[in-house]
Give the backbone structure.
Amino acid sequence: MLQNFISSKPKARAFPGTQVDLAQHARPPIKWAGGKSQILPEISKRYPQDFDTYIEPFLGGGAVFFDIQKRFDAKRFLLFDNNRELVLLYTVLRDDVEQVIDRLARFAEQYLPANHTERSEIYYRVRNEFNEGLKSIDFEKASPLWVERAARLVFLNKTGFNGLFRVNGKGLYNVPIGRYSKPPILDEVNLRAVSKALQKAEIHRFDFSKVLDYANRSTFIYYDPPYRPLSKTAYFTSYTSTDFNDDEQRRLAQVFWEAHRLGSKQLLSNSDPKNINSNDNFFDDLYSPFTIDRITATRAINSNSEKRGRITELLVYN
């Protein structure tokens, strides 16, 4: 399996038009199951104030990174994910955002005026092209194919059902079309802001355990792993072709313990199994020596709208 996915050194680039610090306005460029924008006020209350290196080993939509880079002038920002599509996307947005904007503009020109039948034809054609691209894409070497793949991923995310990213066991994207009247396919202002923010970051395809290579007293690590499902039908852990199961949750807890021993400041979010079973102490036991706060959140992604209610989630920190 690939580990260090790409060259991680950011390229300097100029942005057209404005002298405003675009990075201060950056928001997640894609919707992500379990995205943290909703509970960011609670998360930000628990940021440490003294660190030189920020590490986020489950990047996802990047809401916490975009907030951190606005608030703190850290010397180093390290962004990891084991999802090769995400790593490719953020690398391309950092280094070639204008090309992505151009491609998304063409998607928007095709898709937005179309009727539902035409939209369906466009969506599934792009999804098929995205999946066929697995046969030809080289995830280790940058090429023009990277820009096309990144733009297709953003398009599918903005027009697919509930903004999900989901793949099957073969790594094929299998989300059906959504029913949005005016999906925000192109937000060029935010894409430029995202690119500006990412200039600060090194981006790698690493397993989360790689944080231990950088863990020390000047490091702050925020972990946002795929949430432990609250029911047998609530599996949103398949953002790669393998599930993030309880064994992976236990391995993550071991990394958290070791990074704590090395002196790192840490914060972790996850689901609260006590929403379903008050006797389920899975995370309470795994992280028993650390502070565990239960905060209120709204279930953001559920196929049944009647089940989108208030629940508690966990924030664990040392």
Remarks:
- Residues 116-132 form the longest helix (17 residues).
